[in-house]
Amino acid sequence: MSRKNKITASLGQLLIPLVALTILIVFNLIRDPNFFSIGMRINNAGNAVLTGNLISVIDSASELAIIAMGMTLVTAATGGQDISVGAVAAISGAIFVKVLQGMGAITGSTVFVALIACILGTILFKLFNGTLVAVFHIQPMIATLILYSCGRSIAYWINGDATPQLDSPIINSIGKTIPGIPIPTPIFAVILVGLFLFLIFKFTSLRLYTQSVGINEGAARLNGINPTFIKLLTFALLGVCVAVAAVIGVSRLGQLNHKTLLADIEMDAILAVAIGGNSLGGGNYKLSGSILGAYIIQMLTTTLYAMNVAPVNVKAYKAIVIIIIVVAGSPVVKEAITKMIRNMKTGAAKKGVA
Questions:
Q1: What are phi and psi of 42, to 5 degrees?
Q2: Which of 58, 123, 279, 353 has its CA 20 to 30 A from that of 288?
Q3: Which pLDDT does position 8 carry in this prediction?
Q4: What is the pTM of this model?
Q5: For residue range 223-275, what is the model confidence (pLDDT) as tens digits?
């Protein structure tokens, strides 16, 4: 495929999320010309930070964008989704807090150790899911239903029913802003995770192998690719994403609440993957599409709140808009549009000949 065709195919896959994002931007600019204005304010710690709806959208979507990247890999390799990411995030947060409390004072080194322990622990739980899927060939949604059901109970066993407080400038910097830097720290976390995955794709063949396994596992095996290993690896990478998102979630509030930490984020992550133009049946994917999908979901949420929609009704309105976006990006609609464009070109060509 030529470079021009690759660019055309890439833009085609991102067409729906880009159109959806454009519509949301235009709608908000018409509704409120100052919706995307950015300002500066002094926070409670005395530091200057950026404010505004745009900053709020990019910041608030950080955990979702990070998990959506990992969810994209699992979806591409297995043709299914992991619905336990929210529950496992609660376990991740519990491990992070437990290690920090066990080490006494919260310092840069103890936070680093707690983060590594959190990542390793989360990878183990994700490998449990991956083993059920890759080794025992259980459908991903069924396999991950186990931890979806009991994950928050495990988090409870780790930390008890208490809500541990993490009163520390370091934790505050992770969840909010670093003194002297007005941009929210979670935004940098999204960039770092994206860069981490980009480097993996650049220096390994993981992207090609993941797509190959997702498209045709049998053919991939005949070409020397180990589908079991690739699936386990995607679940491990999802574990890294979940752990990072959990640490951000805990740090935002400065406390752990295993009942509410990243609650229902699994549904939004799956929607972000779908809105991003990725096939939920596996195969070809674009992480950038999933990231766009995460920001679209968050911008829609922020827009509804700005319109004074009651919180209890927000999910209903989101569902309506997301159904429209997903249907518009479905293979049936895409095929119909392609056929219509082809017929128009054919008709124009015939008129030119005549």
A1: -100, 120
A2: 123
A3: 54
A4: 0.92
A5: 999 999 999 999 999 999 999 999 999 999 999 998 999 998 999 999 999 88
